[in-house]
Amino acid sequence: MSVELFRAMLRIRMVEEEIARRYPEGRMRCPTHLSIGQEATAAAVGLALAPRDLAFSSHRSHAHYLAKGGDLDAMILELHGKVGGCTRGRGGSMHLSDERAGFVASTAIVGNSIPLGVGTALAQRLKGEDAISCVFLGDGATEEGAFYESANFAALKSLPVLFVCENNLYSVYSPLSKRQPAARDLCAVASSLGLAARRLDGNDAVAVFDAASSAIAALRQGAGPVFLECMTYRWREHCGPYFDDDLGYRPDGELADWQRRDPLVSLRAALGLSETEAERLTRAIADEIAMAFTRAEAAPFPDEATVFDGIYRTELDAS
Ligand SMILES: Cc1ncc(C[n+]2csc(CCOP(=O)(O)OP(=O)(O)O)c2C)c(N)n1
Hints:
Blueprint lengths: L1 H21 L16 H10 L5 E4 L4 H6 L4 H8 L23 E4 L6 H14 L6 E6 L6 H12 L4 E7 L2 E2 L2 E2 H4 L6 H7 L3 E6 L3 H16 L5 E6 L22 H7 L2 H9 L3 H24 L21
Parallel strand pairs: 1-2, 1-3, 3-4, 4-8, 7-8
Antiparallel strand pairs: 5-6
Helix pairs in contact: 1-2, 1-11, 1-12, 2-9, 4-12, 5-6
Bound molecules: thiamine diphosphate.
GO biological process, one term: pyruvate decarboxylation to acetyl-CoA
Keywords: Oxidoreductase, Thiamine pyrophosphate
InterPro entries: DH_E1, PDH_E1_Alpha_Subunit, THDP-binding
């Protein structure tokens, strides 16, 4: 299991590093938010979920999509705006959606996908399904009204929702200290709304996997919604491929401190994974990524004549 977890994290890291490397070439034209540094939480929750469970994400969605079983080719095609992309080349990085992977939606409006996940959990409950909804959100999204309304409703109806809050300490350039009162404790807020809340080291993949697995098992038994606050850190700029430590919005040394706690390095050490095994995994993933980019670059753009397809209704109901 743990090698699988390591592989999932390594794959996310390598895919995003390749996106960052190629982004300046200008072939991927959509705004792109990378999760480099935050892979552990996504990978661990993705592995803990079953294929039948449904996931919802935000603007920073690549890691969640890949971890939930999303198709790498379809994601890279999507970032290039090409036919064959998981949203047919129309959504781009912030609007990944793929029924086959149980990845319902990611959206660019902060907090917007939270009620989608809760509404879906209500449908799952009403239909008597043995599936849950997982909503990935950032710490910034807990400042949106949609979070409070959705959490309240989920708690009221005891819905099978796993809220996974990746607390990376920032919303764009604003640290928590500029946005929330000093004594704010997100888990206390979540508990006060009726969610079973737990704070975790979001860079400890095994701890997140264990917590997510037990939360999911409880949700399947009908326990009320769960909120996991996973402490982690975004290494690169909020949006785009570069590092932005020169901008001065992060305290000196903070990035370096978190880089020393690289979730991949610590899991690899904990697993005692050999150099040969790590290289074997790296090579196989690198081949997969190279193929995905080659395919995406060669693929056609959607036909101009179809530009409004799937956006507006083309005919009115007769009624
Ligand atoms: C409703 C809304 N307000 C503001 C924005 C601009 N915006 C885009 S991403 C972002 C940061 C959100 O922070 P967080 O939820 O913590 O996620 P992170 O980017 O850290 O992963 C903001 C403010 C937006 N897209 N939607």
